[in-house]
Amino acid sequence: MNRLGAAAAGIWEFVAGDDWVTAAGVVLALGLTAAVSEETSAWFVMPLAVALLLALSIWRAARSDRHD
Amino acid sequence: MSGQALGLAVSVFLACAVEAVEAVTIVLAVGTTRSWRSALIGCGVAVIVLAATTAILGPRLTSLPIDTLRLFVGGLLLVFGLQWLRKAILRGAGLKAQHDEEEIYREEAAAAVAAGPRHQGLDGYAFTIAFKGVLLEGLEVVFIALTFGANQNRVGLAAAAAAAAVLLVTVAGVAVRAPLAKVPENAMKFGVGVMLTSFGIFWGAEGAGASWPGGDAALLVLVPAVLAFSLGLVRIFRASVPERPVMEAVEA
């Protein structure tokens, strides 16, 4: 069980890195794109979502750096 | 060569070169301080595991339906690309230490010396550190090369770009016999982050059902837009950082 847990933790670390919020945001943004594309051309969703996720990620890192 | 194929080759080559430089530093450190034979055996076993991973995953990826593949590939490239870009922007803004191969080499060599006496025959420490270093640095490259290659049905081109980068870095490492500190790793990581993020946005959106105005030509707008936005973030956050020496640990 410990080995399974370690393997799962390793895969999580490999995929999500040190910012799981951004990884989760990417999944949500892809889902939103799929939902919007049912109604209209949804090409604009991903660029906007990625810009927001990246800026938020840097802002969080900068804020935690100042609090250290 | 089409724009997408060129993007594939450049992205895979740069990503692979950066990871290969980091792997060479680790192998050099344990090889020099502990045992060259054990370090090279560890390195060789890791390469075999990476080759097996590629051989197993490659055909499965290429057999996926194109929309599923693009959704999966786009998502994975975005997750990896945003990690690379985030670190590169933080380094550019002075919020994170610049990647320094000489410092990493000194730390790895000191840890290898502190690990105790060398064993006769296969040195477990040198083997394990070289194996882990090459495997972990290589896995990300395998995923990037496979996903890029599979999505464009150009796994051969991705493999050739990856092999060329590894060969170039290995030859340079053997020739110099020191950490490849002059390779502009930070700039290369910034470039790779921009490319992975741009292609991730493009393919992820297509896989999720969106259609781009102008088709593939949208990439010619996306790549410069991601680059400009990232440089803008560097500028904004650099302005908010007070002048101070960066003392935090050097991270991969």
Low-confidence stretches of chain A: none
Q: What is the count of β-strands of chain B? A: 0
Q: Kindly provide the radius of gyration of chain A, computed on alpha-carbon positions and rounded to a whole number of angstroms.
A: 16 Å
- What is the helix/strand order of chain A? HHH
Kindly report how far apart the N and C termini of chain B lie: 33 Å
Mean pLDDT of chain B: 84
**Number of continuous helical runs of chain B:** 8
What class would the helix/strand composition of chain B place it in? mainly alpha
| Quaternary organisation | heterodimer
The major beta sheet of chain A can be summarized as: none
What Rg of chain B do the Cα atoms give? Answer: 19 Å
Helix fraction bin of chain B: over 70%
Q: How many helices of chain A does DSSP assign?
A: 3
Main sheet makeup of chain B: none
The shape of chain A is: flat
Quick rundown:
Chain A is mostly helical.
Describe the overall structure.
The complex is a heterodimer of chains A (68) and B (252). Chain A is mainly α. Chain A is 81% helix and 0% strand. Chain A has helices spanning 2-16, 20-36, 45-67. In chain A, helix 2 (20-36) runs antiparallel to helix 3 (45-67). The model of chain A has no long low-confidence stretch (mean pLDDT 85). Chain B has 252 residues and is an all-alpha fold. Chain B has helices at residues 3-33, 36-62, 66-92, 101-114, 124-151, 155-176, 185-207, 219-239. In chain B, helix 1 runs parallel beside helix 4 (101-114) and helix 3 (66-92) packs across helix 5 (124-151). The longest helix of chain B has 31 residues, at 3-33. Chain B starts with a helix and ends in a 13-residue tail after the last helix. In chain B, 48% of the residues are buried. Mean pLDDT of chain B is 84; it is low at 245-252.
